[in-house]
């Protein structure tokens, strides 16, 4: 189940779409907490330094569909640095003396 889902669909001018994408691009450049104006409200998101992105273009039936998807975890995940000896992928070395 999703914690939150927002969808916006409607007819916009090319310039209105450009304004939305510009605001999103500026929020991505700043990172941290970003406020995006969506419809009649504002959405505040934490944007991390690393994201997963997917761009999909479909052409058919007299239409072009362009989807831009950005994903990132909802919580900051801190991973402890691994010591080489703790890495299960590396073979262990034994010293014979």
Which value, in Å, is the CA radius of gyration? 21 Å
- Assembly category: single chain
The beta-strand count equals 4
Instruction: Look at the helices and sheets and give the structural class.
Output: alpha+beta
What portion of residues is helical? Answer: 10-25%
**Which strands sit side by side, in order, in the main sheet?**
1-2
Q: Separation of termini?
A: 58 Å
DSSP summary: helix tally: 1
Q: How many strands, what sense, and barrel or not for the largest sheet?
A: 2 strands, antiparallel
Can you describe this structure?
Helices cover 18% and strands 33% of the residues. The chain has one helix spanning 14-30; strands at residues 32-38, 41-47, 52-60, 63-71. The chain has a domain at 14-73. Strands 1-2 form a two-stranded antiparallel ribbon. The protein contains one helix and four strands; from the N terminus they run H-E-E-E-E. The mean pLDDT is 80. The chain has 97 residues and is of the alpha+beta class.
Layout of strands and helices, then pairs:
Layout lengths: L13 H17 L1 E7 L2 E7 L4 E9 L2 E9 L26
Quick take:
The chain is an alpha+beta fold and 97 residues long. The protein is 18% helix and 33% strand.
Attribute tags:
97 residues; alpha+beta; two-stranded antiparallel sheet; two-stranded antiparallel ribbon; 1 helix
């Amino acid at each position: 189940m999703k914690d939150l889902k927002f969808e916006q669909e409607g007819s916009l001018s090319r310039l209105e779409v450009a304004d939305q994408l510009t605001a999103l691009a500026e929020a991505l450049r700043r990172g941290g907490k970003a406020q995006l104006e969506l419809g009649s409200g504002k959405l505040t998101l934490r944007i991390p330094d690393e994201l997963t992105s997917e761009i999909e273009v479909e052409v058919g039936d007299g239409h072009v569909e362009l989807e831009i998807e950005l994903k990132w975890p909802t919580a900051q995940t801190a991973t402890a640095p691994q010591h080489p000896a703790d890495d299960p992928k590396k073979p262990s070395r034994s010293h014979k003396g």
